[in-house]
């Protein structure tokens, strides 16, 4: 039998529990331990998957049989725990937004590079099969050139949120997606954000990203809409492409036909963690790097600055 990669999860809330489940299911990984500041929560997940529970990340990370770690804590503690894991010599997948601010994200990037460790960020949308289909189609020029893309990511206020606003929690997914699909960084950002029901953070945002060649992307995100919507619409020189992130249904409208490619539904998280493991094992090149995470945060910060000042904010590479 081939050796399995020893993995652990820090943060055993809803999403961390899913990471633990997938690591337990993957044939190339051995889930060794889980950690959470809440012992009862950590112990519940540990018993479910037959591993050891910890409340001290430092103590858990001293284990030599742990080679890679998923960080699934609150946004404001993601960078601290990821940095701790990197300094302990572990490869890291840190959930979005990677860090509460770009300064902390830069520290993670420097630490991973200086220690020769893999650092990737949990931008799950990239692993949806329909997105991979769209990306490949544009790389092969089957739909011409992207002219405009519009994303809608709206839903009710999630109780788990309490440390960042809707831009860094929700819209950051689409900021990353626009960079990925346009295959470049935006040159400028203009945004409007505010709070209707939640005084601590913005709960709605409208963001426009401008790319070279007068191409644009529009992002709508909020915690106000009574039902969950996750959609992407791309207008290209030869087609209109629509994707529902939730159902994974894809439609393509062209001048003479409209088609719905039959792409089997797959769990994005399983694809993401499988890819992470293959990258650690040297079998794949990372689809998402720490640099991608840093740029997404910088653009999110530019959007918040634009909303505050009412001005267009230019983006520097």
What does this structure look like?
With 317 residues, this protein is of the alpha/beta class. It folds into 2 domains: 118 residues, NAD(P)-binding Rossmann-like Domain (Rossmann fold); 160 residues, Dihydrodipicolinate Reductase, domain 2 (2-Layer Sandwich), CATH 3.30.360. Helices cover 37% and strands 28% of the residues. The chain contains 9 helices and 15 strands. The strands form 2 sheets. The chain has a 9-stranded mixed sheet with strand order 14-13-12-11-7-10-9-8-15. A 6-stranded parallel sheet has the order 3-2-1-4-5-6, sandwiched between helices. Strand 11 and strand 12 form a beta hairpin. Helix 4 packs parallel to helix 5, helix 5 packs antiparallel against helix 9 and helix 7 crosses helix 9. The relative contact order is 0.15.
